[in-house]
Amino acid sequence: MSSSQIEYRFSFGPWNIHEGADPFGPPVRESYSFDEKVEQYRNLGFEGIQFHDDDVVPDIDDKNHSQLISRAKAVKEQIDNHGLIAEVVAPRLWESPLTVDGAFTSNSEKERQYAIDRSKRCIDVANELECRNFVLWLAREGTYIRETKNASDAVGQILDAINTLLEYDPNIRILIEPKPNEPMDIAYIPTIGHAIGLAYASIDPDRVGGLIESAHAILAGLEPSDEMGYALQHNKLWSVHLNDQNGLKFDQDKAFGSANLRRAFNQVRVLEENGYGGNGEFVGLDVKVMRTQPREISTRHLLNSRKTFLNLLDKVRSLDKNVEQEYIVARDYEGLDYYILEHLLGK
């Protein structure tokens, strides 16, 4: 490895070691405790943890500020002892009974205020974990039928919420994670382009960027590597959640590269060729283990996804760029297509 090559760091969230529930069936495995999950990170080759606020502080809505801070401090000490870093923290705004009509875009002023207050408490948690990256997955910011909300006003409500959070903490960075649908029928911020538009409209564009999940881009009918390239050109790709997806179905979160290896190759390539990771960004994985896996081997999807990334990284770095350029200059894209396929096949 040359001195200019990045050594990537990897992260995942505790929910990725899960019980096998899916949209159509209940859990099929016994749970691992939070402590048991934390103990597995380093053995799997991971350094970063992706957190929801209530991963850190269970039953967060029932805790007062002192209890919240005390629990967050305890988790910080725990992850420090395991040599781990909190990569991102996100408020889980989509599961509360107060967010059935949306969080920042609810038709209820009281419920919109709850979403703001919950987000501020999440920032307090992030600060105790020494984490600047605050993720907004705008899960229920959308509509089931057009007539319930004014789309322009809804986008304005999201922007107002972002500005309020930027004012609440002068150091936090907001990473918007777009998704086109699910759990809402149609989302107001479905793609990274929408997210970056919000960033530039905010009161501090330098502190608003994006997090791209592979499956979310695919669900929008888009190519994840192109979405990443768009964000990278704007210097606003601050995290990724790599996984895979079989078409326009429910969010599958399959192991990275398991459905479309070439699509995975191009995601690794766009990150590598544009210096992703050079400023400390993590390669995040958001992958679900198959329901068939017994509990004792229910972390292999994480190990395998990380290995796939590193194997594809070798393919990116060993590609003969001179040969590639010869095909491009000749406009022999059929030749280039087959050259890439042979390279991936190890020919």
Overview of the structural elements:
The chain has 347 residues and is of the alpha/beta class. The protein has a single domain (10-344), classed as TIM Barrel, CATH 3.20.20.150. Helices cover 43% and strands 12% of the residues. The protein has helices at residues 34-44, 53-56, 65-81, 109-128, 151-168, 192-201, 214-219, 224-233, 261-273, 300-318, 321-329, 333-344; strands spanning 10-12, 48-52, 85-90, 133-137, 142-143, 173-177, 186-187, 208-213, 237-242, 283-285. The strands form two sheets. It has an eight-stranded parallel sheet. Strands 5-7 form a two-stranded antiparallel ribbon. Helix 9 links the parallel strand 9 and strand 10 (283-285). Helix 4 runs parallel beside helix 5 (151-168) and helix 9 (261-273) crosses helix 10. It is globular and about 60 Å long.
